[in-house]
Amino acid sequence: MRRIALLLIVFLLLLSFNNGFSSTINAEVTPLLGPGYIEVGVPFTIDIYMNNDDFDVYGYSWPLVFYSPDGSVPTVIHRNVSGYSVFEYHTGLFSTDSSILMPNGFDTVWSMINTWTGFSWDGILPDTINHTTATWEDAWVSGLGNVLYIQFALQIDEPGQFCVDSVDCPGTTYDWLFDFPMSFSGPYCWDVVSEIPQDPEIGISPEFFNFEGVIGSTAPDPQILSISNTASGTLDWTGDWNSSWLMASPDFGTAPSYSQISVNLSGLTAGTYYDTLVISDPDTRFFLDMLHDRGQALCCSGGVHDPRLVLGQLLAACTVS
Description:
Oligomer: single chain
Shape: elongated
Order of helices and strands: HEEEEEEEHEEEEEEEEEEEEEEHEH
CATH topology of the largest domain: Immunoglobulin-like
């Protein structure tokens, strides 16, 4: 009789677990130093929000991997927060940390199985873990919205890049009954920094050029434009102008750098000529456009210079005579 009951339970579980369902899962970090930035040496949690928007769920198996894509973060600290420990698959022992929390009553749903299994949960990245759940009486009911159900308490003590994504379990041991079709939209990645890096910002000197020349004579001496980055990051600038009499050489570079500004008198008649030389960086230009979109004053695109070539009537007349 016991054997028949056990077979009946397994049969019902197979019916329940093999039914596909729709869920969305996303990962966030609390606290953030800024959008996309985790602060070095500060405790934080990876917050897993889950939304079951289809029908009641009686179990799942879901593996995750924590890693550094460029190897810049070799280790992570699993903080003890009086949560769940992890059963290490390869050693058969439970981890000494208790770094996993299941808030908002999510742990009470799984009355039969609620197991965290680590395939490499030692803080040496990559860390891989699997969560296996099952319930017989209650269920993870649909229609509750996007709820915080899982938290990983961590800390990283060196700068770099840190990510979390869903993966396949090693082998087939923990893929046996449960299939968890989901939209995770990973990987989720953050930069681990001591402070938020600033965007580059253009500095220019001088801000005005004045050339004076005489028709039929040699061109006035060139002048030097200094281009600097007054913030941080890399500033790759380009120069742009409209007239044929103005020249900047070079017309691109990486700050700090210099450009020689010169004029060509060929084809000009006596008069006063104006042009605008725009020194811009793609990132800086984009940043200024954002300020404009937010309703703030926009005075220029990057740094703007107003060279002026003055060919006075008196000089021209003297030259002719």
